[in-house]
From TrEMBL, chain A:
The keyword Nucleus applies. One of its GO terms (molecular function) is protein heterodimerization activity. Signal peptide: none annotated. Keywords: Centromere, Chromosome, Kinetochore, Nucleus. It comes from Trichoderma gamsii. This is Transcription factor CBF/NF-Y/archaeal histone domain-containing protein. One of its GO terms (cellular component) is kinetochore.
UniProtKB/TrEMBL annotation, chain B:
This is CENP-T/Histone H4 histone fold domain-containing protein. It comes from Trichoderma gamsii. Residues 412-423, 493-511 have a biased composition (Low complexity). SUPFAM superfamilies: Histone-fold. GO terms for biological process: chromosome segregation; kinetochore assembly; mitotic cell cycle. One of its GO terms (molecular function) is DNA binding. InterPro entries: CENP-T (IPR028255), CENP-T/H4_C (IPR035425), Histone-fold (IPR009072). Residues 479-489 have a biased composition (Basic and acidic residues). The keyword Transmembrane helix does not apply. Residues 371-388, 686-705 have a biased composition (Acidic residues). Residues 349-359 have a biased composition (Polar residues). Residues 63-74 have a biased composition (Pro residues).
């Protein structure tokens, strides 16, 4: 039986957050972390697409993403 | 023609018959038409009266076409009225009044269809269902009317193919150019050519026309040497004649404001300037050739033998330049100040090329300021905003000196100065330095050993790829350098390029290997805990999902973009870990819980009054994860403003969630904690923090995701 498609690498995400926070994670916190990460990526992609369109490029370039990144940080975290 | 006469005949004899033939239904038109006809006939000019007697003119053809003999000249008021009345008629009917010149216009159907159709016809309804909208056409909106008009126009254009033929050709016959040409032809045998007012100069060896004064005074020897073997091209005249004695009494214009001794405020007049970098390269001094010939007398006309008032720049002239001593003081012949206004050749032409393309260049500096005697004095006494100008002047002087010393190497040398400046300009983004600690020792060494001078002088140096930089721009610059040096030396360049390509390939491989190693390597966080990196596959999946969410469609992700995305997500996770640690530490917990995340998302403005957590989850998470969020019950309340450790009860979060989703309340509005659970400590699962939750999860996990 084929395993269902995993939405995200759960253990890896938990390990990353645990390493960065230095704390343990409760049982389903990683779902919310994944949700938060999805939201962040949404914002990042949106901003990067705006920058890419302004620069006249068809797909993302690292420059666009780097330009969009502080905006997303500020939009998300402040 | 015959039709026309017949029409006239019928009009004169029996208008009623004629009109009734075309209007059997309505005599209301006829009445007015008849009246107008009558008025028209009464006001007819006398030559038209002779026309109306048809008999004698019938046999002899008219020298002119009928429009000129029309009973209604098209400019008369009566014709206008008739035309207006014609517009009210149907298109298919022949209009009564048809001036032949205007037939095309009067046949244009513009409003006729609409006005002819009765409302009953137009809005005919289904008789069985009188109020139904089945057979009722749409009411005539302006767009519909315009479309219908366009259709009719096209149809009429189809039916009258000769519309363009009927246009009057008078404009084409009588253009002003034609009139002038005819005049010229008429006057040609009697008139004489006007003598030129320019100076009767000696003809040049080729017998070509006049030469400009500056050119004549400038380089007599070179002209004699060069012009003999030149193509016989007409030389343009560069200036007005200056060697005629008649212009001696003309004083050069100068401003009276500056001469006024009581004038204190206006010391100088500022003329428009141009940045030295904008204009063409100032090669005037080099172009003017021999250094012993001072070009100022040519250009400014300071020579008392050649006072040329028109050679001044189009502005306000310097003070009293007619005095030769002052002129000598101002422009000492040894210094040879660069010109502000000169004849220039477009860049790209070498000096000894004599071409006919010159252009006048406007002065860069205002010449009203007294020009100091020395360059140093000028740079010291100049204003602060003149400093870049002076620097430009100075640098230009240096460049001219360089040109004087090695004139043929200037083309190859100029681009070599640029890369050191471009290095400062094109500084990379701040985020790119994140990559630097990831570099190996050798790469860091290469970065620190980097020298701009060597970069400038050896553009084909292959090894220096900037590692942390965005890969587009520095590489492009290196390619420019390659081109510039390729112009200088081709074969060594090719060899070096092959070498560079090989090395670049090797470097790319090495970089790919280093990247793979960096992927494989276990990273260590700030808390000294190892953690795996985010997989590229996961990042790509999330990015593409986000792109689809934000209506960008499916986007191809380049490798470098994906790399940047994963780097960004790594920073994000680092920041997230720090924040979660701060939240949990603030609550004196040693475990990050869901409420910390909820609080964080509130702070991030991801969750607000309009968008609850469950709303977000239902939009962004797959269903099984939503179920996880729902069934597992962390009481998704943030830890503030009231400590709600009592929200453990199984039903309560569900109730909370439903009430939030239904009423859209602000989620962190504190629900009154039930007093029965107020003092209860939260019982924590023992296995929820370790890796042991793998088997309890829905999704089996392996690290090579």
């Amino acid at each position: 039986m084929a395993t269902p498609r995993r939405p995200y690498p759960r253990t890896r995400l938990r390990r990353i957050i645990k390493a960065h926070s230095g704390m343990k994670l409760s049982k389903n916190a990683d779902v919310l972390i994944y949700l938060n990460y999805t939201m962040f990526m949404n914002a990042l992609v949106r901003e990067a697409a705006i920058h890419a369109r302004q620069a006249g490029e068809r797909s993302f370039t690292p420059r666009n993403i780097m330009k969009a990144l502080p905006v997303c940080y500020f939009a998300c975290l402040f | 023609m015959s039709e026309y006469y017949q029409l006239n005949y019928q009009l004169n004899n029996d208008p009623d018959n004629y009109l009734l033939e075309f209007h059997p239904s309505g005599p209301s038109f006829n009445h007015y038409r008849r009246e107008l006809r009558r008025i028209q006939n009464e006001n007819k000019p006398p030559y038209a009266e002779t026309e109306n007697g048809l008999s004698e003119d019938d046999s002899t053809p008219e020298p002119y076409s009928p429009p000129s003999t029309s009973p209604s000249p098209p400019s008369s008021v009566a014709t206008m009225d008739l035309e207006i009345m014609d517009m009210g008629r149907d298109v298919d009917e022949t209009p009564v009044h048809t001036p032949v010149q205007r037939r095309a216009r009067s046949l244009e159907p513009s409003i006729s269809r609409l006005s002819m159709n009765t409302p009953n016809e137009r809005y005919r309804q289904n008789p069985h269902y009188p109020h139904s909208s089945i057979n009722t056409p749409a009411p005539p909106t302006p767009h519909a009317m315009a479309a219908r008009r366009a259709l009719e126009d096209r149809r009429m254009a189809m039916f009258t193919p000769g519309r363009t033929r009927r246009q009057s050709l008078r404009e084409q016959r009588e253009t002003p150019m034609l009139i002038l040409r005819n005049l010229g032809r008429a006057l040609a045998p009697t008139s004489k050519a006007i003598d030129s007012s320019s100076s009767p100069e000696k003809p040049s060896p080729n017998g070509i026309g006049n030469r400009g004064a500056s050119g004549s005074a400038r380089s007599a020897g070179r002209r004699n040497s060069d012009d003999d073997d030149e193509l016989p091209i007409d030389r343009p005249r560069l200036s007005l004649p200056i060697d005629e004695g008649s212009s001696d009494d003309l004083q050069p214009p100068h401003s009276s404001i500056l001469d006024d001794p009581s004038n204190i405020t206006v010391q100088s007049v500022e003329l428009p300037r141009r940045a030295t970098s904008e204009g063409p390269p100032r090669r005037s001094f080099g172009y003017l050739g021999d250094s012993d010939v001072t070009p100022w007398d040519d250009i400014y006309g300071n020579d008392d033998t050649n006072p040329d008032p028109f050679a001044y720049p189009p502005g306000i002239a310097p003070h009293a330049p007619t005095d030769p001593e002052i002129a000598d003081l101002q422009f000492p012949p040894g210094v040879g100040r660069e010109s502000d206004f000169s004849l220039d050749m477009p860049s790209g032409l070498s000096d000894n090329e004599q071409t006919t393309t010159f252009y006048m260049r406007s002065p860069v500096v205002d010449t009203v300021e007294a020009v100091p005697e020395d360059e140093d004095a000028s740079s010291s006494s100049s204003d602060s905003d003149d400093v870049p100008l002076m620097e430009g002047r100075q640098s230009e002087k240096d460049r001219l000196l360089e040109q004087a010393t090695e004139p043929e190497e200037q083309q190859g040398e100029q681009p070599l100065e640029q890369p050191s400046e471009l290095l400062d300009v094109g500084f990379p983004d701040l985020g790119d330095f994140e990559h630097v600690p990831d570099l190996g020792d050798a790469e860091m060494d290469a970065l620190t050993r980097y020298d701009p001078e060597t970069f400038a002088q050896d553009p084909v140096r292959p090894g220096d790829e900037w590692i942390g930089y965005p890969p587009g721009r520095p590489r492009k610059r290196r390619r420019e350098d390659d081109e510039s040096s390729r112009a200088a030396e081709a074969e060594a360049e090719a060899q070096a390029q092959a070498h560079a390509q090989a090395e670049a390939r090797a470097q790319a491989q090495a970089r790919a290997r280093a990247r793979a190693q960096a992927q494989a390597q276990v990273r260590v966080s700030a808390h000294n805990i190892q953690y795996p990196p985010v997989t590229n596959l996961f990042v790509r999946q999330v990015v593409q999902h986000a792109a689809q969410n934000s209506a960008l469609g499916h986007q191809r992700l380049a490798a470098d973009a994906l790399e940047t995305f994963s780097r960004a997500s790594e920073w994000f996770f680092r920041q997230l870990g720090d924040d979660l640690r701060a939240y949990a530490g603030h609550a004196r917990r040693s475990m990050v819980e869901e409420r910390d995340l909820v609080a964080l998302m509130h702070r991030q403005r991801v969750i607000n009054a309009e968008q609850s957590l469950f709303h977000l989850a239902s939009h962004n998470l797959p269903r099984e994860l939503q179920q996880l969020l729902r069934s597992n019950n962390p009481g998704y309340q943030p830890a503030y403003p009231v400590a709600q450790q009592s929200g453990i009860q199984l039903q309560q979060p569900l109730v909370n969630a439903q009430s939030e989703t239904v009423t859209g309340l602000r989620p962190f509005v504190p629900n009154p904690p039930s007093p029965s659970h107020a003092g209860e400590k939260r019982k924590r699962d023992e296995d929820d923090d370790g890796e042991s939750d793998n088997e309890s999860l829905v999704f089996p996990e392996d690290d090579d995701y």
